[in-house]
Design brief:
18 helices, binds tryptophan, globular, single chain, about 75% helix
Length: about 450
């Protein structure tokens, strides 16, 4: 165990870091439109079940592996595998973090750009057609999205390069509480809009008829993505976790805050969509096309609000995106420091360069490179789909199998129950251990196979 490794100062910083990683574009950009498309409250119920029954146990296994080894993703895996398997394993487990970090930064860049535009008052007076056209033109253009991607990545890597306590911890401790405050302000605003009550009703009325096996699979995928599983972010953050912290408690808090935030985001966005009388099935463009228009459609009510609200909204997306991006970057930077012996500064520069280049390709795949289609998707969509549907699930399966079948039982017990001192963890341990050994792997295999066929 590497004792010289930095540690998060205390419980609050630890949970802020996990929550910061979990709360991101997934919660604001993806979750509300999935709720809108898949039966409102029914989807929320299914999503919570997926999170509790599958994603949370996987969180525990990934966290346990990191805390126990006191190392990052590749170094932890290297303690289990040798020879050729080790090389293959490194490639498998590093692919997803590199791809996700890169394409995530492209959308992070959009949110930075939209935040700046909101500050300049660009969304104060814009028609529905203009909003749709604007995003279409913007996302397919070359220069602006690439510059935003560059700046977003630069800010994020600057935080990571400062290290755990001075960089990541400090940023999360300030940003995560602000995110909750901003989204609450937004809910307050959107629920006061005329006709918003219909949206609130929609969210509270479950339509279980819409829950198909496909919807179940997307709920599962979303809960893995939202909790940042299977990519090493939970593992690397857990390696900075003190031995006195309780893994079950930290994981449960993370699920709680992440799910709350996703639901809050839905209550912020969907009533506003109803109020503006817009079709709910707007897909991922909801945030960047529909919302800018919604903001301006109420300028007659209050010109001041139609300026301030978009600023608040895009600021919260930007903040959420950065807290997630830094957790992804940390996986790669830590790998370069630990395995390649680089200084943190050098590792940051290399990581920045690689993600910048891959991200540029992703960004261009909406415009000049949109002709390149892999499995019916552009490059961005393809990277998103293979990392979220295949790599994340496969790596989660590896983590669960290692903890359930390979690790010494005593170690698992010690990590999960704090050597028997955690009273609640001791109580649920037998069920949890059984669940991790048998149920979780079976479920993950089913999800993996379903995803391959989809
Ligand atoms: N969870 C974040 C979101 O919801 C994104 C994220 C951060 C992520 N780290 C990750 C996704 C690791 C997958 C794996 O936006």
């Amino acid at each position: 165990m590497n004792n010289s490794r930095e540690k998060f100062s205390g419980r609050i910083s630890l949970i802020a870091a996990f929550a910061g990683s979990a709360i991101g574009l997934g919660n604001i950009w993806r979750f509300p439109y999935m709720v809108g498309e898949n039966g409102g409250a029914a989807f929320i119920v299914v999503y919570i079940l997926c999170s509790l029954l599958v994603a949370l146990p996987v969180f525990f296994t990934e966290s346990l592996l990191g805390r126990n080894s006191g190392k990052g993703l590749v170094s932890t895996m290297n303690t289990f595998f040798g020879g050729k398997t080790r090389k293959v394993m490194s490639v498998i487990i590093l692919t997803a973090p590199i791809l996700i970090t890169s394409f995530y930064s492209v959308v992070g860049g959009w949110s930075l750009d939209f935040f700046v535009r909101a500050c300049m008052g660009e969304f104060c007076d814009i028609s529905k057609e203009e909003a749709v056209q604007f995003f279409g033109k913007y996302s397919t253009s070359v220069t602006e999205p690439i510059i935003s991607h560059f700046l977003f990545l630069l800010v994020s890597i600057a935080i990571v390069s400062r290290g755990i306590k001075k960089g990541i911890e400090k940023f999360n401790n300030i940003t995560v509480p602000i995110l909750f405050l901003l989204i609450l302000l937004f809910i307050f605003y959107s629920s006061s809009l005329p006709g918003a009550q219909e949206g609130v009703k929609y969210l509270l009325k479950p339509d279980f008829g819409k829950i198909t096996p496909g919807v179940l699979a997307s709920a599962m995928g979303q809960s893995f993505f939202s909790l940042s599983l299977g990519v090493g972010t939970v593992m690397v953050y857990s390696s900075y976790m003190k031995k006195s912290e309780n893994i079950l408690e930290a994981g449960s808090y993370t699920v709680f805050f992440d799910t709350c935030f996703a639901i809050l985001a839905s209550f912020a966005i969907i009533p506003a969509v109803f109020s503006a009388g817009i079709e709910l099935n707007a897909g991922p463009s909801l945030v960047f096309e529909t919302l800018p228009y919604i903001f301006t459609s109420f300028k007659t009510v209050s010109p001041f609000l139609s300026y301030v609200i978009p600023v608040i909204f895009f600021l919260s997306i930007l903040g959420a995106a950065i807290t997630s991006e830094i957790s992804l970057l940390e996986v790669i930077v830590d790998y370069l420091v630990e395995e390649k012996g680089l200084s943190r500064k050098k590792a940051s520069v290399i990581c920045f360069t690689v993600c910048l280049l891959i991200g540029i390709v992703c960004s261009l795949s909406f415009g000049p490179l949109s002709g390149i289609q892999i499995a019916g998707k552009n490059i961005f969509g393809f990277f998103d789909s293979i990392s979220s549907n295949l790599f994340m699930i496969l790596c989660s399966l590896i983590f669960a199998l290692l903890v359930g079948w390979k690790m010494d039982r005593k170690t698992v017990w010690n990590e999960l129950t704090n050597e028997g001192r955690g009273k609640k963890s001791v109580k649920i341990y037998p069920v949890l251990y059984f669940w991790i050994r048998y149920i979780v792997p079976v479920m993950l295999v089913i999800i993996f196979i379903t995803n391959i066929f989809n």
